[in-house]
Every structure is written in structure tokens, then in C-alpha cells.
Design goal:
Blueprint (H helix, E strand, L loop, with lengths): L2 H6 L4 H16 L2 H5 L7 H20 L3 H24 L4 H27 L4 H8 L8 H20 L2 H5 L7
Helix pairs in contact: 2-4, 2-5, 4-5, 4-6, 4-8, 5-6, 6-7, 7-8
Length: 174
């Protein structure tokens, strides 16, 4: 039985993770990421920030084995539902929403790979962020350093969170 089922019962798995997802999105909206961290305050920049923080969270859950994998699936489903709704809200029609969601999931997968490498020390956070959060656009070294330091701090804080607390929405503030 997964941790979600044990904590919340089978029917409420996704609903139980909405506080965690909302906390991730709330942190992704923090002005410091955009003002001090140089993330573009655009639709793409906001997606990239949510994807970065979601990736860090999914990687933290990955280290829990099967219970974390169960939570990751549900959290990713919430992300897909949110992105679907966001696309529709900005006027993307039914016919192409699926294609956009596919691209977003591919982007999330790429970020997971890059941020996993950064978390494991096989790539620098600066390089991973330059390619994925800043999409290869020129970024000031000080700005990149600030953002990398915040991501490193977030990963450390996520690792320090017990899974039940994290699942309940106790998301760190780097």
C-alpha cells in the first residue's frame, strides 16, 4: 500500500497532493526568482520555473523508492491537468492542446535529467539552469550564480523534509 493510500485513502490520492502542488507553484511565483534570479517573467519563464521546482520535488520523491514513485505519478498528473487548464485559458484550442502537453512533458523529462545530473554533481547547476531555465539565452554570471545557489539550497531543504511533511505541502523556502 502506498504512502498516499495509507495517509489519505485510495480515493483522495490526487486531492491530497494539491497542497504540495500549490506550494510548488507558489514558490515558482516568488519575485526573487524573476527579479534577482533573472528568470523571464513570461509564460515560458513561469513554466520553466514551475518545471524546475517540480523537477526538484520529483527527484526528492524518487529517492523514496516505490512510495515516492506513487506520489510522483499523482503529482505529475496534477501538473498535466494544470498545464491543460492554463493552455485553454490562454486560448489554445482542443485540437492542439494534446500536442502542447506532449511538448511540456518532454520538456519536464529533459529538466528531470539535467537537474538529476546537477543534484548528483555530474553537471553544474549553472550549466543545467543555463540550458533549461534560461533556454540558452545569455545570462549574467552573478544572476546565474544566485539562481544556482537557490536551487542547491532548495534541494538540500527538500532532502531534509520527511516525505509525509512534503506530501502535506510543507515545501521549503530557499
Amino acid at each position: 500500500m502506498s504512502i498516499i493510500n495509507r495517509l489519505f485513502g485510495r480515493q483522495n490520492g490526487r486531492e491530497a497532493l494539491i497542497p504540495l502542488y500549490n506550494a510548488i507553484v507558489s514558490e515558482a511565483r516568488e519575485p526573487a526568482w524573476y527579479l534577482d534570479g533573472g528568470v523571464a517573467d513570461t509564460v515560458d519563464g513561469r513554466f520553466d520555473m514551475v518545471a524546475a521546482l517540480l523537477s526538484a520535488t520529483l527527484l526528492r520523491l524518487e529517492r523514496e523508492g516505490k512510495p515516492g514513485a506513487d506520489v510522483s505519478v499523482l503529482l505529475t498528473e496534477i501538473f498535466v491537468d494544470d498545464m491543460d487548464g492554463q493552455l485553454r485559458q490562454i486560448g489554445i484550442g482542443d485540437i492542439v492542446v494534446g500536442k502542447h502537453i506532449g511538448k511540456m512533458m518532454s520538456a519536464l523529462g529533459g529538466r528531470l535529467t539535467a537537474y538529476r545530473a546537477a543534484s548528483q554533481g555530474t553537471e553544474s547547476w549553472e550549466d543545467a539552469l543555463a540550458r533549461n531555465l534560461f533556454r540558452g539565452a545569455p545570462v549574467d554570471a552573478g544572476t546565474l550564480s544566485f539562481t544556482a545557489a537557490r536551487m542547491r539550497a532548495l534541494v538540500v531543504q527538500l532532502d531534509a523534509r520527511a516525505m509525509p511533511a512534503l506530501v502535506n505541502g510543507d515545501f521549503p523556502k530557499p
